[in-house]
Amino acid sequence: MRRLNRNTKQHGMEKTTQAGFRKRHNTTIQLVRVMNDIISEFNKSKTTAMTLIDLEKAFDSMWINGLIKKMNDGGVDPNFTKLTHSYLSKRTIKVKVNSTVSRPRTIDSGVPQGSVLGPILFNLYTHDIPDFQNTKTALYADDMATYAHSYYAQAALTQNQIHVRMLEKYYAKWKLKINESKTENIIFARKRTNTKVITKLKVGDHTIPPKDTVKYLGLQLDARLNLKRHIKMATTKGNAAIRILYPLLNRNSGMSQENKTSLYKQVIRPIITYGAPILSHISNYALQPLEVLQNKCMRLATGAPRYTRITELRERTGLPSIREYTTATTERFFRRNRNHPLIASTIQLTEQADTQAPTPCKTRYVVPEKKETHILYLHKMCDYEEEQIVQCPYNKFQMCLLGRMTKWKCHPTEYNRDRDIRFNKKCAEVLQQQQVDPAEGSWHNDTYPTYVPKKKTYGRQSTGEGVEGQQQQS
Fold first, then answer.
1. Which pLDDT score, from 0 to 100, does residue 4 have?
2. DSSP-assigned letter for residue 57
3. What strands lie across the sheet with 47-53, from one edge to the other?
4. Whole-angstrom Cα distance, residue 334 to residue 233?
5. What pLDDT, in 10s, does the model give residues 239-261?
6. CB 147 within 8 A of CB 161
7. What pTM value is reported for the model?
8. How far is 301 from 49, CA to CA, in rounded Å?
9. Which residues pair with 110 in a beta bridge?
10. Other beta carbons less than 10 A from residue 441's beta carbon
11. Which residues pair with residue 143 across a beta bridge?
12. 144 to each of 28, 95, 180, 269, 376, how far by Cα in Å?
């Protein structure tokens, strides 16, 4: 298997957007890539149309002779090609009903179910899926998503329609078929009015209307990426796991507190925090159902009564909050995958030189010198375009907890001199007055400059100073 992977990689027979059954690839990486693309376009006031394509019996209908042809044309070692042909050809099946067994029949297509080489051979078979210049593709084994961005939902959907027609011709040529009944379509938009389309997507003879929520790689995505449906589904699964494990988690089970806590960390918490880097950008209010479920598990593990404080339960069990856990998991994820080809553009590392002065920023925290700062694009919409979240090196502020924040209460951002010169000058003056130590970093909550709107004037004023001019005249 390793030699086959190495051989196909050398001959360029790996799809770059394929994240299934490849080294250092998983569902979370593909989800981060897709979510980052959609949210980045949200900040440009663009709409994203996504089509989820499902193949009918993908692994069972793979054309064996077509796979051998692609291996020969791609320059794969002939020994591997002969071995693969011998492995897949002349297979027979029998059907048994009670005590009656049917005659053996030869299998002309497909790979063995449950085999190790099956997914790898399928990736090799579909490595030449056609791309379209106006759309992006995200593959995970036989699950495929194609999406396009535009200021208008109809324009984005039209680009997807063109790509779907190309895929239909490709699949028909290589004896694969799109499952039209399971193919889904969704339109992601910042505003609900941007989701209206006149011409709907067509796959074959079927019309695919846009849905409000779709399930992609285990994540429930809604049209505005609030993830409310996913949080509800995760809470339901977590409660089901608690009911199954209740004989071990209840107060009279005889298990120690440490074992109950370990059981929660190994079984229940992975269920409710699946896709932690995706959950890091949603609000605390949206995460509250998961916090309640974890508090329930902590009470079961410690046997504490209902009036016990949550802070005391966390001290006993040593468990962080869901928000703290997802933030820490996100930071580890991006540090571990900082050079990953699929999400390399999501992470940008910036370093301040020794001679560079501390940069005044529009946040309440001053970024210290000589410290790597992660700039993540996994955030919600804001009033500024292409705004970035700065992950504080000391974790003294939280990451974009609210969507559509006001202009003067924006989340931590990078300093941009051209964006608002007047506001940044005030911020810099405040820092100079407080004599901030750039090596330590500090807060300036009390003297944080706020925007005071001007009073409106009504009618014709005798002077150009509005209400103040009237008071002076009187």
1. 77
2. T
3. 136-140, 143-150, 47-53, 184-188
4. 26
5. 999 999 999 999 888 899 999 99
6. no
7. 0.71
8. 45
9. none
10. 18
11. 140
12. 15, 32, 13, 28, 25
